[in-house]
């Protein structure tokens, strides 16, 4: 079994491991950079997820569609930190409020 939490929180591979930073996956030109060895969301070796080749484009389509059709924002005056709650058998985000508006 691979300890994914430890891989994704390894300071040898990741800067500011407890900070949500999607820009860490982009190079200086804003393009997707090569992923470090400790990035294994679909596992590796004999236990690699067979659905990886389907999941990646599907996730892209889902998020692209959501961002095309809706605006996501926080309520006015509410600052929210996107951090994990206590961890038991998985990492779960803390509860927070968002506003979803349909785009026209």
Order of helices and strands: HHEE
How far is the N terminus from the C terminus? 47 Å
**Low confidence ranges:** none
What is the spatial order of strands in the main beta sheet?
1-2
Mean pLDDT: 82
Tell me the number of strands: 2
Descriptive report:
- Belongs to the cytochrome P450 family.
- This is Cytochrome P450.
- The protein has 104 residues and is α+β, with helices and mostly antiparallel strands.
- Helices cover 22% and strands 8% of the residues.
- The protein has helices at 4-8, 52-69, and strands at residues 70-73, 99-102.
- A two-stranded antiparallel sheet has the order 1-2.
- The longest helix is centred in the middle third of the chain and has 18 residues, at 52-69.
- The mean pLDDT is 82.
List the helices and strands and how they pair.
Layout: H1 4-8, H2 52-69, E1 70-73, E2 99-102
Antiparallel strand pairs: 1-2
For this entry, give a set of tags.
2 strands, globular, oxidoreductase, 104 residues
Q: TL;DR?
A:
By secondary structure, this protein is α+β, with helices and mostly antiparallel strands. The chain has two helices and two strands; from the N terminus they run ααββ. Strands 1-2 form a two-stranded antiparallel sheet.
């Amino acid at each position: 079994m691979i300890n994914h939490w430890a891989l994704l929180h390894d300071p040898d591979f990741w800067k500011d491991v407890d900070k949500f930073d999607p820009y860490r996956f982009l190079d200086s030109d804003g393009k997707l950079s090569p992923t470090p060895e400790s990035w294994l969301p679909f596992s590796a070796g004999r236990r690699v997820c067979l659905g990886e080749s389907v999941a990646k484009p599907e996730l892209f389509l889902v998020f692209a569609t959501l961002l095309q059709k809706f605006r996501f924002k926080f309520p006015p005056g509410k600052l929210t930190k996107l951090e994990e709650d206590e961890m038991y058998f998985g990492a779960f985000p803390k509860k927070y409020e968002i506003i979803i508006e349909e785009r026209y």
